[in-house]
Amino acid sequence: MLNTIKIIMIDDDQTIIEALTEMLELEGFQTESHSRADKAISLLNKDSPVVVLSDVRMPKMNGMNLLAHLQELDNELPVLLMSGHGDIPMAIEAMKEGAYDFLEKPLQPAQLISQLQRASEKRQLVLENRKLKQNLAQQTGLETLIIGESAAIKNIRQHISSLAQANVDTIIYGETGCGKDVVARALHQFSLRNKGRFIAINCGGISESLIESELFGHEAGSFTGANKRHIGKIEAANGGTLFLDEIETMPLPVQIKLLRVLQERTIERVGSTTPIPVELTVIAASKDNLAQLGEEGKFRQDLFYRLNVASLTIPPLRDRPEDILPLFHHYARKASEHFSRALPSITPSYLDYLIQHQWPGNVRELKNATDRFVLGISETSLASIKRQDDINGSYEERMDQFERHIIEEGLRATNGLLNEAAELLDMSRKTLYRKMKKHQLDKQHFKATENEGHE
């Protein structure tokens, strides 16, 4: 990731530039140096893949003026200022105006490298986030339905294009919440039967006594309570697509009748012996391996072989992290329209949370998280995520974690305003600034978090 971000160094002291260049390039950073701030600005744009490291005291344009210009150009561009004058009020002012950090000369190599790594990672996330949003806005056709950039999702899109035109019966495998119904609808929408109806039935959501009537329909008087004729799901899907979700839960006797429908393409309503021809594509979905269930006697093998003309497997979201952000942006736009709410700003810490989370509920869980995010009621800081390493460690490490949490809460409560946060935490501004540097906290993160809750 770091190799794609360049460090732009600005200092009128050539000795310092040469020393920084040698140190940073040994650490694997790409660098570019300038002796004048105005020259550097002229080469940058809103989406430049850079982090700026600049001296404060320079002729013509100083570091504070540079910061103001870059904030106007792109307020998400990390700018680290450095000064040899130990000017605490200036440091506070720089942080208040949006600087990523303020470093005192002589620079501490470990601290500088650590902050540049964090700033580079932040910049990379911001740029990737922008690119994904642009790509989503430009997508058409199948890409608007099957969202993702992973090799697995690209492969699924290719298979859908081929299978949809063939109108073949298909099995879709995948964990709960991974989007089997979305793939099924895409198969229908891009098929030659897309003028017909897409009829979905959850086999696990209907009692065994009712599923036969729901699938095949019934005639009036065929059983107690059957007061009038009922058209079943299979007949309703005639000319279109029947989607059988959780087919592994279908009772074995009903499986026998379904097999006959697939073989003969006719149905008989319950209470009738009149065959009704049907032309349809059947798509089944299962979270379990139907072949294995067949070997165990829990699913009819002949039905499995009849359905298994083609199959698709959707990997769980944890195995395709490249798809998390595209899916998040897709559902965020939909949630924004649904709830009539403006899209909140996405902080780097929240992006980090999205990528690191394992998503046991797959896309369904991500969609719910996106709804909460748009409504302003989601977690927006990694501080709220309890990791195993948060509860382990030495006494000093755990106290550091607690101190960081308290400072984060103070900054969050005051929307990143340092004066108010210092007063709330009952400490001096100098102490607050020092502790923010210690824990590598950026006040901009807390400004964004506050905005999320009020837009």
From TrEMBL:
InterPro entries: AAA+_ATPase (IPR003593), AAA_lid_NorR (IPR058031), CheY-like_superfamily (IPR011006), Homeodomain-like_sf (IPR009057), HTH_Fis (IPR002197), P-loop_NTPase (IPR027417), Sig_transdc_resp-reg_receiver (IPR001789), Sigma_54_int (IPR002078). The modification 4-aspartylphosphate is found at D55. Residues 6-120 form the Response regulatory domain. The keyword Nucleotide-binding applies. Keywords: ATP-binding, DNA-binding, Nucleotide-binding, Phosphoprotein, Transcription, Transcription regulation, Two-component regulatory system. Residues 146-375 form the Sigma-54 factor interaction domain. GO terms for biological process: phosphorelay signal transduction system; regulation of DNA-templated transcription. The keyword Nucleus does not apply. One of its GO terms (molecular function) is ATP binding. This is Two component, sigma54 specific, transcriptional regulator, Fis family. The lineage of its organism: Bacteria, Pseudomonadati, Pseudomonadota, Gammaproteobacteria, Oceanospirillales.
